[in-house]
Amino acid sequence: MKKVTFFFILLLPIIWISSLALASTTIVLKHEALVDGKNVYLGDIALLEGKLREELSKIRIVASPVPGDKREIEKRYIILRLKQLGYGENTVTVGGPEKVVVERAFQEISKKFVEDLAFEKIKDVIPKWAKRYEVFFDIPTFSKYAPTGNVEIFLDIPSLDKVKGRYISFPVTINIDGKKWKKFYVNCRLTLYADVPVAVTSIKRGQRITKEDYKIEERKIERPSFPYISPDEVDGYVALKNIYTGNIIDFTYVARPYQIRRGEIVDVVLKRGAITIMLKAQALENGSYGDMIQLKNLKSGKKFTGIVKDFGLVIVK
């Protein structure tokens, strides 16, 4: 009887250890692991077997390295992390190498990629009068290693008439899976080439310009918001200020001549279907061909609007 009791006492620890081994979860660390998120979880860096496998695989161990970079995680730190969360040696068994090398997955977004996209996008704002153009982009340095996901790049290039000075500056926003990853500003130097009217003689302020006063030349234009006027249109315009030989004639130098001047008495043709009425009115505004101006009926004093059709002639429809 004593021998049986002694044998049973010896057998109890063996049974207890065996049952503990069956109940524990085995964790075998990997030598290397590739992760795709901001955090490293135990399931990313180890193979797990046992009842607690699902539970333990979701434990956050450390933050991930930046995309394209690596970091080492020591086994002893992982064991300590598990103990802090209540998973001691009686619950889990940790095996494998003494450290795990973790690399963050990435995709490459290079400066060249952004520059090519900007080159295509800027075509949308190039004026039709430009025969050709040259463009140089100054893109700030940024890490080309981006997190994985769907990439969207937005370039907000302004229309050239809103640009002050010789350089264009616009924001570039890079979103990944709908969230902003990077935002920076690009500076752009744009040079345009166009056929422009160039004065061949001095033109005085107030003088009407004729075809003999200018020639057509291709010139380099380094101001994006250049107030271009077609050589086909400048004939007949009036100089707003003195224009000297060799000057490019643009809209800062000229204005359309007024067919009607403010205060002038003009003829008005009023059309109502088949009925045409002629009357006199006073112009309340200056107007060139095609302009809508305000007038005053000489008899009734009522104000109305009409379209300038010729010198001293307005049409009301």
Shape: elongated
Say which CATH homologous superfamily of the largest domain is assigned.
eubacterium ventriosum atcc domain
For the sheet with most strands, the description reads: 5 strands, antiparallel
The CATH architecture of the largest domain can be given as Sandwich
Query: How many structural domains can be distinguished in the coordinates?
Result: 3
The total beta strand count reads 22
CATH class category label of the largest domain: Mainly Beta
Write the layout of secondary structure elements.
Layout: H1 2-23, E1 25-29, E2 32-35, E3 39-41, H2 42-45, E4 46-49, H3 53-57, E5 60-63, E6 70-74, H4 75-84, E7 92-95, E8 99-104, E9 107-108, H5 111-121, E10 132-138, E11 145-146, E12 151-155, E13 167-176, E14 179-199, E15 214-221, H6 231-234, E16 238-239, E17 254-255, E18 265-272, E19 275-283, E20 292-297, E21 303-310, E22 313-316
Parallel strand pairs: 1-7, 2-8, 18-22
Antiparallel strand pairs: 1-4, 3-5, 6-8, 9-11, 10-14, 12-13, 13-14, 14-15, 16-17, 18-19, 19-20, 20-21, 21-22
Descriptive notes:
This protein has 317 residues and is of the alpha+beta class. The chain folds into 3 domains: 2-104, Sandwich (eubacterium ventriosum atcc fold), CATH 2.60.480.10; 108-192, Thiol Ester Dehydrase, Chain A (Roll), CATH 3.10.129; 265-316, SH3 type barrels. The chain contains 6 helices and 22 strands. The chain has helices at residues 2-23, 42-45, 53-57, 75-84, 111-121, 231-234, and strands at 25-29, 32-35, 39-41, 46-49, 60-63, 70-74, 92-95, 99-104, 107-108, 132-138, 145-146, 151-155, 167-176, 179-199, 214-221, 238-239, 254-255, 265-272, 275-283, 292-297, 303-310, 313-316. The strands form 7 sheets. Strands 10, 12, 13, 14 and 15 form a 5-stranded antiparallel sheet that branches. A 5-stranded mixed beta barrel has the order 18-19-20-21-22.
